[in-house]
Write a structure and sequence with these properties.
Layout lengths: L3 E2 L2 H8 L8 E9 L9 H9 L10 E4 L9 E4 L5 H4 E5 L8 H10 L10 E7 L6 E8 H6 L21 H6 L10 H27 L6 H11 L1 H6 E2 L22 E7 H11 L3 H19 L9 E7 L9 E7 L7 H19 L4 H7 L6 H10 L13 E7 L6 E2 L2 E9 L9 E7 L2 E7 L1
Length: 448
């Protein structure tokens, strides 16, 4: 990774970040510590990450801001890079408390990253029940964009339980010298050039922004189809004019987060999928709709209108940006019968798949090498939705899912039991559900 200026998408992830809108995504990897050949400790984590520094150059990259914020920042090698700063070690206070891990993950996740250093942190969490351990990675979405979707913790995943053979002496002998950052003249010229081009680009972006204004979409859609066809195909909004209802998690969000993991058996989901003739995404979306209906009923909040969710899809449509599209699906929360809810959701998602062309699971896994890429999938779709303009979104929640590794995977020499994505929420959409399959389990994360 060479010194370069941030791309527009990466810079936008920095610009929209605030105390209540976090710019990073996290991933929790639960490990079976009893399956290791040697104990997992801080030295093992340090050695494994140090051995991969050259494979993941973003680990050493930091930001260089332009004075007065006149242009997008630059990536450069951090001349004072300190690996020990980014590696953290913490224990769950009470292994017998089933909520202790969730509270710890939420507290770590809702702290913003230090922009003066490379935008990542990696925690080794000990003291879990049954001798388990966990890895929690935090990485900024701007850094994810520069890495092509590879996450920090994902670099530690592999199909072999063997640890790196690199010794401490070999690590010390690895010479690394920070390359010079951009020169003042280079930044000055680039800032001048971008200042001349950005007004024209802003004018071209006006048609896509009009779609987020209620009532205007129906009037300008014919023109938008010609002026901004690719963006229109990225977010598929239902043709119905039903109002998106408001719930308690469709308000402004604060700086703190709550996180809850859920693990389901893939065999049960596969059985239901085959009997009903639907897809895994259909089943997951219907399950979320049923769970939200139950929760809202319990809190006397269930609206008459059905809730809506943005469901990102990896597609083969050449007109979709980055191979991603999203469909706004009615969660059918007004229906009591689960089978009727599943059928209706299957029909809506099916129409989007016919339009874009579904991408096979193996191809999706190939994008990230079987690693978590949920953060990038969600952020790129939310970036081009009305959420990017801070106006009323046409959905209540986001349900993001990708297939993960089906074969046994290992990290730090231990077998991976689960991978839970911890994704972001923003004003107006205070609930994000992420799902990733790992072997015979479907690992869900609810962030609020």
């Amino acid at each position: 990774m060479t010194t370069r200026q941030l791309r527009r998408g990466e810079s936008r992830m920095l610009a929209v970040e605030s105390p209540s809108a976090l710019g990073h995504t996290s991933t929790l990897i639960v490990l079976d510590a009893s399956s290791t050949e040697q104990p997992i400790n801080s030295a093992v984590l340090h050695g494994e990450v140090a051995a991969r520094l050259d494979e993941l150059p973003l680990l050493r990259q930091c930001l260089v801001d332009i004075p007065l914020g006149l242009d997008r920042p630059w990536w450069r090698d951090d001349p004072g890079f300190d690996l020990n700063y980014h590696l953290r070690y913490i224990a769950v206070p009470d292994p017998d408390d089933p909520t202790a891990l969730a509270q710890l993950v939420a507290r770590i996740h809702d702290r913003p990253l230090d922009r003066r250093r490379p935008l990542w942190e990696l925690y080794l969490i000990t003291g879990l029940a049954d001798g388990r351990m966990a890895l929690l990675s935090k990485v900024h979405l701007a850094a994810l964009g520069s890495a092509g979707g590879n996450e920090i913790a994902a670099g530690l995943l592999g199909s072999s339980p063997h640890l790196s053979a690199t010794t401490d002496d070999e690590l010390d002998a690895i010479g690394w010298k920070a390359r010079p950052g951009p020169s003042p003249w280079q930044m000055l010229f680039t800032t001048w050039r971008n200042t001349m081009l950005d007004p024209a680009r802003s004018m071209l972006a006006i048609p896509s922004r009009l779609t987020s204004v209620p009532g205007v979409r129906a009037l300008v859609n014919p023109a938008l189809a010609l002026l901004n066809q690719r963006t229109q195909r990225s977010i598929v909004v239902p043709n119905d004019e039903t109002v998106t209802p408001r719930t308690s998690f469709n308000q402004r969000v604060g700086p703190h987060r709550r996180w809850a993991p859920v693990t389901l058996e893939m065999d049960r989901i596969a059985d239901l999928r085959h009997r009903a003739g639907v897809s895994t995404v259909d089943v997951l979306t219907a399950l979320c709709g049923g769970a939200l209906r139950w929760w809202l009923l319990e809190h006397d909040e269930l609206p008459k209108e059905p809730l809506k969710a943005l469901v990102p899809l990896s597609v083969s449509d050449p007109d979709a940006i980055d191979g991603l599209a999203g469909v706004v699906v009615s969660l059918q929360t007004h229906r009591r019968r689960p089978d009727a809810r599943l059928t209706a959701i299957h029909t809506e998602i099916g129409e989007a798949v016919v339009r874009h062309g579904a991408m096979p699971a193996a191809e999706i896994q190939g994008i990230g090498g079987g690693t978590p890429i949920l953060g990038m999938i969600a952020s790129r779709l939310l970036e081009r939705s009305p959420l990017a303009d801070r106006l009323l979104p046409p959905f209540n929640t986001v349900i993001t899912s990708v297939p993960g590794p089906s074969d046994p995977h290992y990290a730090l020499g231990a077998r991976v039991e689960a991978i839970h994505p911890v994704l972001g929420v923003v004003d107006g959409v205070g609930l994000h559900i992420g799902a990733m399959s790992v072997g015979d389990r479907l690992c869900l994360s609810l962030v609020a």
